[in-house]
Structure formats: structure tokens, C-alpha cells
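Sample entry was shown:

___
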Amino acid sequence: MDVTATFQLTPREFRQAIRNLPTIRRIALLSVLFTVAGLVELFTSNHPQWWLIVTGPGLLVFLELAAVRGATRRSAPLLANPWTVRVTEGSYRLETNASSAKVGWSNYREVTERAGFWYLHQANRAVSFLPQQAFNETDRAQVAAFFAAKLPAQPRPWYRALI
């Protein structure tokens, strides 16, 4: 298999990809838990802990402004030019005007699919993403079948949902 695609992400697509990164989703889940705990504390305690009430929404605002929008601003020069990705039996290659990277499949542990992107999880917990729309229907099906065979998604026990 040798599939190559060239694409250009819009800032909106890039933000969507960043929001769906596993780390960002985990922090968002924790902020929702803090918010619920804060509301429970507010309605059940005579002396609520205000830090608990403010932490959840504050964390969500921080995620959106600093992590997601900040990453988009820092990556604006990369978004101005097209990216080329090449998926072969032996490696994944991404080229932009600023950089070029080629990584063998032995460095990846799984591929997950979410919101129109494939997320390539490396063994060192780094994650890169690949938009499915970059490929035509035939290539998309071929790449999806390759990912399913080469790097299947790992089931996670319910008690380790955040890992």
C-alpha cells in the first residue's frame, strides 16, 4: 500500500482536531467533574468551597483559550500552506513547508477515529492526527482497512477510562 494525499486544514478544522485529542478530552472531562462537585457542594453545604465551584468552568475556559485557540494561533503559518501525507506499509510521512517527518509503524501503538480524523497514538503517548477528508473514497477505505489491521484500537477497562 502506498497512499499519498495533499490537504490544507482551515483554522476551524485544526481547532476541531485539537479539541478531540485524548489529553484535551480528559482534561475537559475532569473539568466537568469539578463543576458537578462544585454544584453539589454549593447546594448541600452551608459553607461551600468556592474554589471547587470555579475550578471546573475555569478549566474549560483555559482549555479553549490557551490550549485550543493558542495552538491554532501558533500553528497559523503551518495552516497557510498545504500538507502532504504519505501512508505506506512501512511508515507514515508528513511534510509541510516548515518540516518533514517520517515515522515507522513500530513507533505507533494504536489508531483511533473521531470526528473525521484518525488519531495516531505513539508508544511515548504523543498523538498526531490525519483528516479523513484528505483522501478520496477509495484511498480512505484502503487506509482505514490498513489501520484496522496494523494498529487496532485498544479496549480500555471502564476503571481506566482516563488513561
